[in-house]
Amino acid sequence: MFKRKSSLITWIILGSFLLIFISLEIAGHQIARKLSNQWKSIPLEKNQVKMEGEKTSSMNNILRRRITNLSPREYYLVIDTANNTLYLKKGEKIIQKSVISCGSGNILKEPGGKRKWIFDTPKGEFAVKSKMKDPSWVKPDWAFIEEGKEVPKDIKDRIETDYLGEYALGFGDGYFIHGTLYTRLLGRSVTHGCIRVGDEDLKHLYLAASIGTKIYIF
Amino acid sequence: MLPSLISLFIFLAIPVNILGNEKASDTAERLLLESELSLAKKPNLYFIFDLRDKRISLKARGILLREWEIRKVRYWGNPVAIKPIALTDKMVLLPPKRERIKPGESDEEEKYEVKALELDDMPSSYSLSLTGGIFLSLRPEAKGWVSIFPNALNTLRRYTLLPLKTLWFTVRKKTFTSIEIVLKAQRESQALYWAFTEGTECIIL
């Protein structure tokens, strides 16, 4: 008797839940039907004012020209960090395509400290800020921490030669496009945020780029 | 008599309709160009989701950096105004995890062993939350018997979750738009997840 009663209650509860759910579903569907454009193209909003045909068309040409004028006239670099690829471009033409290495995305935490580094290659618009031949690397704190060594106080102990290759292009905040000793790893995300390029490609980039050359990283 | 009248009606109606469509598309294009100009003036990357022409463009200063082809698109809810909107959140079941470096534990051998967050680690099915109650859900096209499970899940989502969400947003007097986008391949979907970072602005057309 007790068992029958409890199963009846269970059915009533389940039924009520189902009823509530179906009611909500129907209400949602009704609202959605009113709001939805039912898989058709999205119409313009009412406040998006109607324009006169000819005026709009000539205005569109002006706007198109204004957008085009914002794009760089000279060489620029496009860096695809997902595919570890660099493009040297002029207008829409690809001048050079290079296999590179970008940031690993790994995290380093200072043992017993508060500092933390995320080794990502930054994304956005940048510009070449410095050009160097036979550059030396001034090792930052994280390089010593990663190696488990003590951070030196004298700057002379931070300088390392032959590490960045023959050329380097700085684009701010300590980030460089430079050469590499680890050519086997080109095409993989292994750096601390800098962009490593093979020797030949790097030379071409160094010659083509000047201070102010735009770099777009995504 | 009747056929001639019908022909006359068609003759008169078609040009009027064409002019009306041209006017509307010119206005839509103007709104797009105005919005794009406002984004191109900033030193940031931006996306254009052209759902009519079925393509997604990543741009900077008006330059096209990368393009994605859309295979299928479905809308639900309020229409979206042609104006810049920003990505506020990426929602995914299992977010990609970053590797932690253990100080002093890397040796010369390990320099050739890649421990990194790469494109393959990115999810291919995810949702993007944009300002103004707009949600984009993206996934790659699934083919063959493998597609049965994700397609069933999507149908379930479309007919159960979306009406409930619409109701919830309406009760709160907020707008709600859900756009379902199917991309060509898994890597395409992963690449979009990689490139579209929080705060990045976009235009939906």
Describe this structure in words.
The complex is a heterodimer of chains A (218) and B (205). Chain A is α+β, with helices and mostly antiparallel strands and 218 residues long. Chain A has 4 helices and 13 strands. Chain A has a 9-stranded mixed beta sheet with strand order 6-13-1-2-3-12-11-10-7, covered by helices on one side. A two-stranded antiparallel sheet of chain A has the order 4-5. In chain A, strand 2 and strand 3 form a beta hairpin. The longest helix of chain A is centred in the N-terminal third of the chain and has 34 residues. Chain A is flat and about 90 Å long. Chain A starts with a helix and ends with a strand. Chain B is an alpha+beta fold. In chain B, strands 1-2-3-8-7-6-4-9 form an 8-stranded mixed β-barrel. Chain B is globular and about 85 Å long. The chains are: A alpha+beta (218), B alpha+beta (205). Strand 4 of chain A pairs parallel with strand 5 of chain B.
Short description:
The complex is a heterodimer of chains A (218) and B (205). Chain A is an alpha+beta fold and 218 residues long.
Q: Key features?
A:
heterodimer, A: 218 residues, alpha+beta, two-stranded antiparallel sheet, 4 helices, 13 strands, 24% strand, flat, B: alpha+beta, eight-stranded mixed barrel, 9 strands, 36% helix
